[in-house]
């Protein structure tokens, strides 16, 4: 590797690290109550050291108790969904695959709805949605094993079957829910939002998201080999079944952690990896880090739009589709999908 190549790689890495930090500071500053960058950093320093830097109580509360936590959640959720989508697209060599392909989103939605009917507790909703999201992927894997055939195809088919089953069960719960209290809560959760998360729920979901993201980063080299096909990967000495299972496990952990705290947010796991692939190429050495960085930025940006463009906050899942869809069409037109 030449010195010029090394320098180019360092610049790319620095940009990918800096972008989420810039968007994070930006989302804290922007809102119906605007805050200067100076006040944001003073609030950070006050929270860290306890020093009195003359920040008024209202500004400190907005920065540290509302927007800081929401910004962290947006970064983690976006990074998790985008990285998982990139992993699945490479692993299954299918451009239409997203982070919820194996039924994790539908399973999590069913778990959340069941929790709302039984407990009406945000903590239990997070626990149930996470548990059923993981269960859905396990069931998809078992269905794929039962059917036999080509492992990649049967896993996708298993995911499709489990998605349909959990979607039907979710519809059943919505049918029997109280139309004045429980049904609106289920519907709003399914639209996706970062608005009402508590610190304990964020901590609960951050652990699987961070574990999943780190795992996908560590295995991105092997993902390059697996994306060549099972036969080629075996020829190169890779244990295909074991490595696929590990990568699917990490991607599922990250997605389930994201969905259990934010609800179902579509398009991030589908659009962002394509954005990165069209700009940076299909090498997972850079595609996975780029998806993590751009996914975090995209989700934080869209969440900022959700809470600023109108008096009432718009659900995140609606705006991701409105923003992501047309931008995806623009990228397809510009690049003609040449990096796929």
From TrEMBL:
Phylogenetic classification of the source organism: Bacteria, Bacillati, Bacillota, Clostridia, Peptostreptococcales
Cited InterPro entries: ABC_BtuC-like, ABC_transptr_permease_BtuC
Topology in membrane: Multi-pass membrane protein
Record's keyword annotation contains Transmembrane helix: yes
Subcellular localization: Cell membrane
Superkingdom, natural source: Bacteria
Keywords: Cell membrane, Membrane, Transmembrane, Transmembrane helix, Transport
Similarity section: Belongs to the binding-protein-dependent transport system permease family. FecCD subfamily.
Record-annotated membrane-spanning stretches: 13-35, 74-92, 112-143, 155-173, 202-221, 246-272, 314-332
CDD domains registered for this protein in UniProt: TM_ABC_iron-siderophores_like
Name of the protein: Iron ABC transporter permease
Primary location recorded for the protein, binned into one broad class: membrane
């Amino acid at each position: 590797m030449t010195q010029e190549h090394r320098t180019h790689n360092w610049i790319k890495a620095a940009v990918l690290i800096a972008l989420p930090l810039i968007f994070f500071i930006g989302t804290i500053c922007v809102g119906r109550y605007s805050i200067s960058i100076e006040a944001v950093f003073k609030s950070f320093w006050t929270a860290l050291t306890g020093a009195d830097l003359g920040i008024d109580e209202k500004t400190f509360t907005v920065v540290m108790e509302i927007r800081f936590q929401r910004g962290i959640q947006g970064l983690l959720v976006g990074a998790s969904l985008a990285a998982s989508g990139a992993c699945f697209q490479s692993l299954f060599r299918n451009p239409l695959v997203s982070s919820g392909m194996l039924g994790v989103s539908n399973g999590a939605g069913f778990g959340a709805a069941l929790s709302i009917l039984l407990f009406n507790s945000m903590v239990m909703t997070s626990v149930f949605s996470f548990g059923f999201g993981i269960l859905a992927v396990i069931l998809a894997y078992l269905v794929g094993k039962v059917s036999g055939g080509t492992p990649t195809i049967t896993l996708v088919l298993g995911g499709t079957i489990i998605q349909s089953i959990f979607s039907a069960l979710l519809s059943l719960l919505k049918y029997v829910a109280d139309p004045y209290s429980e049904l609106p809560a289920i519907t709003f959760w399914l639209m996706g939002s970062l608005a009402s998360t508590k610190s304990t729920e964020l901590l609960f979901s951050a652990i699987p998201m961070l574990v999943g993201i780190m795992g996908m980063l560590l295995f991105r080299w092997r993902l390059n080999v697996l994306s060549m096909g099972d036969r080629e990967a075996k020829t190169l000495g890779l244990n295909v079944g074991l490595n696929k299972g590990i990568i699917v496990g990490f991607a599922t952990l990250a997605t389930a952690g994201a969905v259990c705290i934010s609800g179902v947010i579509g398009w991030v796991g589908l659009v962002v990896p394509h954005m990165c692939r069209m700009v940076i190429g299909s090498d997972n050495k850079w595609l996975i880090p780029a998806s993590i960085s751009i996914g975090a930025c995209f989700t934080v940006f869209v969440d900022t739009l959700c809470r600023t463009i109108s008096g009432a906050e718009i659900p995140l899942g609606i705006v991701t589709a409105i923003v992501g869809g047309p931008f995806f069409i623009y990228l397809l037109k510009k690049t003609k999908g040449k990096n796929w």
